[in-house]
Give the backbone structure.
Amino acid sequence: MTQAPLTERIDRHGHVGIDDYEAGGGYAAARRALREMTPGELIDLVKDANLRGRGGAGFPTGVKWGFVPQGDAAGKGPKYLVCNADEMEPGTFKDRYLMERDPHLLIEGMIIGAYAIGAGVAYVFLRGEYFESHRALDAAIRDAHERGYLGRDIFGSGFDLDLRIHGSAGRYICGEETALLNALEGKRAQPRLKPPFPPASGAWGRPTIVNNVETLCNVPAIVAHGAEWFRDLGLTDDAGTKLYGASGRVKQPGLWELPMGTPIREIVEVHAGGMQDGYKLRGILPGGASTDFLVEQHFDLPMDYGAIAAAGSRMGTGTMILMDDSVCPVDLSRNLQHFFAQESCGFCTPCREGLPWIEELLTDIEEGRGRPGDIELLEKHGGYIGAPGNTFCLHAAGAIEPLSSALKYFRADFEAHIERGGCPYRTGPVKRVGMGTR
Amino acid sequence: MSEPAQGFEPIEQLSDEEVALIEHECAHLPDRQSAAIDAMMIVQKHRGWVSDASLAAIGRLLGMSVAALDAIATFYNRIFRQPVGRHVVMVCDSVSCYIMGADGLARDIQKHLGIGYGETTPDGRFTLLPIVCLGACDKAPTMLVDEELIENVRSEDLAAVFGRFE
Ligand SMILES: Cc1cc2nc3c(=O)[nH]c(=O)nc-3n(C[C@H](O)[C@H](O)[C@H](O)COP(=O)(O)O)c2cc1C
Ligand code: SF4
Ligand code: FES
């Protein structure tokens, strides 16, 4: 049986069309699920497989599906399945790959997921800049409709599914699942108060499941090959495979489907080919911009949810960003905080006011205006902004993760900036590109 | 860019096609207001940007105030509330591209086009904007010209790349 359920067809065909997909056994899992399995059996299967969310938080997918009220308890009206395809976490490039190359895998996963939770309407909430993904999904949805895999009475099971694409108007916070639901409803993408959680009250107040692209793409193979097979794919306690990525100054930046729990060092040295000549690896952001730095002492850890969390970080999206020794950790931190400050939805004060303040202080330190005590100030206020409960959603906490860890692991760099009155990594004066005058 | 600051709401008609597309969205949504973002994106697709007059016309169609629509419009990156050039260039300024030299590239692009971020060339050909990670970090640095993703961008390629967009 396959060791690469997410990418084996892509490896064979490049771009997988509906005939390629079906020739490889595609849509057989959905056919079987809809004809032969009850929603409860499917939810138990996904629980048993220990599939965890690939969007960053790692919540068990089957457990989440189980929160959706079924039958009379659901009340009147539709239920929704929403695929989170907003991928805007800096350093993350996995969902785009799956959607562009094998859109039917996502569609099949969504058919099964929608059936399991009893949703008659499903949305792909797609990042606005993903034009190629949009074209690929549009074509695939049309092809699936033509063969009767979407629409009414799918596979003669009596189950109907209307699958639509919602192109996002663009903002990082749309990826937060309750903000996403507001965006889907045509509103400003402000996160919602939780509880109620989306499985109880989501889109238009109805039960809704939000799952990441990669999460849903794992579902067909679980139905096809079983929970035990899926669990056994992982090298550690976490199940399945993972699309791992590496970007930065490595010899072969890219994306690889590997067993869950593959060690960091193997991903960097074997798959990414190691660092480019003349560069040394100093630290990684393991799963996108909002995860804590890991350094040399962590590189033998397996990339899974548990081990990375125990080291004080998060596996996040599993696409790692590598910082080499030519990169200034202070200026990189400034780049990250610029992103988080810009993308704050503006609802709560610590995030709206605090993140720009942090960006400004980092800019001062980078440009030689740092003062003794600034590091402690960053720690103190960063700690306040990032503490869960002080802000309405996890955006602010995510912003502080790479900062507090940078202050911990690259403290000497911050100190050197303040002592020298400038950036040791630069020779000339700092010339920044800003917004032009409007 | 500026709308005339007159004391009345300018009247603008949406085209039959725009109305049909917006009505198509409304048809499968629980209420008309839910189509607000779709409607603005549809109008922008036809007119390049969303003017105050367009907002008023959309508002009449969906039963929403201009203020409510504007609050939504200004939240999102991809809704332009001022005119843009024939081509919109968006340069990734996120972390992987930053590591691979995006700051220097952005300076070279600004020099090449003769404009800063947020500006449009005097001939109306290009508008330049920064953008968040384009999801091609393994091929950094990257940029988007209209709907085309351009990977591994090098300063020496700029003339050839921009030359393709009249
Ligand atoms: C600020 C913020 C941005 C997020 N962006 C994304 C995103 O782009 N894609 C995604 O799948 N999840 C994103 N998430 C996580 C979602 O809120 C949610 O946990 C996820 O979509 C659930 O799917 P999963 O259980 O399949 O992982 C984001 C969370 C936060 C707090
Ligand atoms: S933490 Fe930031 S992004 Fe989240 S609700 Fe508050 S202001 Fe908005
Ligand atoms: S950081 Fe530029 S494409 Fe991801």
Q: What stands out?
A: The two ends of chain B are 21 Å apart (CA to CA). Chain B touches chain A through 51 residues (CB under 8 Å). Chain B has a mean pLDDT of 93. Residues 16-27 of chain B form the longest helix (12 residues).
